[in-house]
Amino acid sequence: MEFDEIKDALNALKRGESIIVVDDEDRENEGDLVAITQWMNDNTINFMAKEGRGLICAPISKDLALKFNLMPMVEHNTDGFGTNFTVSIDHATTSTGISAFDRMATARALINPESTPEDFHKPGHLFPLIAKENGVLERTGHTEAAVDLAKLTKAAPAGVICEIMNEDGTMAKGEQLEAFKHQHGLKMITIESLVNYQKDKDTSVELKAKVNMPTDHGAFEMYGFESSLTKEEIVVLAKGEPRVTENVRIHSACLTGDIFHSQRCDCGAQLESAMKYINEHGGMIIYLPQEGRGIGLINKLRAYELIEQGHDTVTANLALGFDEDLRDYHIAAQILNYFNVQQVNLLSNNPKKFEGLSEYGIKVADRTPIIVAENEHNHDYMNTKKIKMGHLI
């Protein structure tokens, strides 16, 4: 499909136009019409009802929901994607509440500073949805996309969305969405592109502590960061003052290898090798909580069970329903930005780490391989990393 740049979509929204926002194939795999409440024109909701044909909802921030006492529609949300519906509403000035103009009045009242909870009748014909506070970086839904787009256009954190359906009542997908885009002259973006746009703008790590850390491999400074998005704790082990071009090891936490010295992998040996290198040459190790290439400790152990039954490290992840590698290097890039590191000599054998850092604006100027000895227990694992995952070992 043909997609537009986020900046072009933002300009269209500020002109009062609707845009199409498409989510992931593994999620709802649908396109929604999205407009920003503050900028939408008088025909927006009528267009959504006539051409979109889906349910018209009003994504809002948590603060707006609290302001108007908009409580969840149900006590126990069993929606497959956790869509956070509140009780439906009509503005007190509307008639039946269902006309396009009544729903427009209700939506606009949600961003009126003078509106009060008493101005809304419940239930009604407009369905507010509460967005997660960290937007698409926390949940990749149309709700969060609409509120994020509103904020990016400097508008009140509220929008209007509607699923796009075909004339026969089926959901529009793929080529059908592209035809809809061209028929109505609309911009179309993906939530994935919005996630990447937000990550580029995001500064989501905060330094919480810094201490001296003597180790078996030298004396380091240890920095403790926290992600404001996930509340995860990230440790950085550093030697010397940060440089514009820095020696960097991005190490994914491996409890079994780093702590218990498991011979199933080479993680612990790589960490020790990196510490020795950084102690001698300066630089930093960013220790990310990405156990099992992002699937978590228990799932990693389940993958080990499958490996004992004949799978390799890639097919085991796939059999559990995961991609072969779920890791993202957004947080690592944020930490490097914190230290004003613009390019790195990356201590790694993994090309995906080069790509992951480059995606977030960190240049990989050079690479230092980390070569560790194989053993009888990790030989097949190492071979799979080389052949199937492209590791340079």
Descriptive account of the structure:
The chain is 34% helix and 24% strand. With 393 residues, the protein is of the alpha/beta class. It has two domains: 6-199, DHBP synthase, CATH 3.90.870.10; 204-290 and 327-387, Rossmann fold. The strands form two sheets. It has a seven-stranded mixed beta sheet with strand order 4-5-3-6-2-1-7, with helices on both faces. Helix 2 crosses helix 4 and helix 10 packs across helix 11 (313-319). The protein is elongated, with a radius of gyration of 25 Å. The two termini are 37 Å apart. The mean pLDDT is 94. The record marks 125, 163 as: Essential for DHBP synthase activity. One of its GO terms (cellular component) is cytosol. Catalyzes the conversion of D-ribulose 5-phosphate to formate and 3,4-dihydroxy-2-butanone 4-phosphate. Catalyzes the conversion of GTP to 2,5-diamino-6-ribosylamino-4(3H)-pyrimidinone 5'-phosphate (DARP), formate and pyrophosphate. Mg(2+) 1 binds at residue 28.
